[in-house]
Amino acid sequence: AADAADWDDVSVPEVFESLRYLSDPEHPNLSLEQLKVVQPGHVWVDGVRIHVRFTPTVPTCSVATLIGLTIKAKLQRSLPRRYKIDVE
């Protein structure tokens, strides 16, 4: 088994790359990046903690919870399990 120290840490651009093309539930033809819901400046990686702050298209966005869950699920599927993912 590979030693944990040999694992590459994930970078902010890698995290953003996995999220940028997710589509908005209310605007399926637009990505979260196009709608400025996710932005590279709102992704932080600190060791095994990944923090993503997303911005709903409108403050009262009824699908904000769904978008947050979609972001979290996408990262959980695409990153090693050792990462702790926070989405707000």
Structure description:
The chain is α+β, with helices and mostly antiparallel strands and 88 residues long. The protein has two helices and five strands. The chain has helices at residues 12-19, 64-78; strands at residues 23-24, 27-31, 43-46, 49-52, 84-87. It has a three-stranded mixed sheet, with helices on one face. A hairpin with a 2-residue loop joins strand 1 and strand 2 (27-31). The radius of gyration is 14 Å and the shape is elongated. Residues 1-6 have low confidence and may be disordered.
Would you spell out the secondary-structure blueprint of this structure?
Blueprint lengths: L11 H8 L3 E2 L2 E5 L11 E4 L2 E4 L11 H15 L5 E4 L1
Q: Helical percent range?
A: 25-40%
The largest sheet, given as strand count, sense and whether it forms a barrel, is: 3 strands, mixed
Shape: elongated
- Overall mean pLDDT stands at 89
Number of helices: 2
Order of helices and strands: HEEEEHE
Q: What is the number of strand segments?
A: 5
Distance between the termini: 34 Å
Determine the strand fraction and express it as a percent band.
Answer: 15-25%
User: Which structural class is indicated by helix and strand composition?
Assistant: alpha+beta
Give the strand line-up of the largest sheet.
3-4-5
* Uncertain stretches of 5 or more adjacent residues: 1-6
Radius of gyration: 14 Å
